TrEMBL record:
Keyword Nucleus: no
Residue ranges of the TM segments: 12-34, 40-59
GO terms for cellular component: plasma membrane
Species whose genome carries this gene: Natrinema hispanicum
Keyword annotations of the record: Cell membrane, Membrane, Transmembrane, Transmembrane helix, Transport
Protein's recorded name: Small Multidrug Resistance (SMR) protein
Membrane topology: Multi-pass membrane protein
Signal peptide start and end residues: none
Main location: membrane
SUPFAM superfamilies reported for this sequence: Multidrug resistance efflux transporter EmrE
Localization: Cell membrane
Coiled coil: none
Gene Ontology MF: a single term: transmembrane transporter activity
């Protein structure tokens, strides 16, 4: 299954996307479950991560579409 996926998608794009989703997901869990607060720099950082994933996957043409 993994090898079939890597035939179509570049590993850097896949790894970067999953890493970014993990970072944003853990931050969201921290806020929802543990009541942590995210300051403005944290929000900006999370938005930059989301924007980076968007640009790599959609705008740059690096992923297979």
């Amino acid at each position: 299954m993994v090898l079939l996926t890597l035939q179509d998608l570049p590993i850097g794009v896949v790894y970067g996307t999953w890493a970014a989703l993990g970072i944003v997901g853990v931050a969201a869990i921290g806020v929802v479950v543990f009541g942590e607060q995210i300051g403005l720099p944290g929000v900006v950082g999370i938005l930059l991560i989301i924007a980076g994933v968007y640009f790599v996957n959609v705008v740059s043409g690096m992923s297979a579409h």
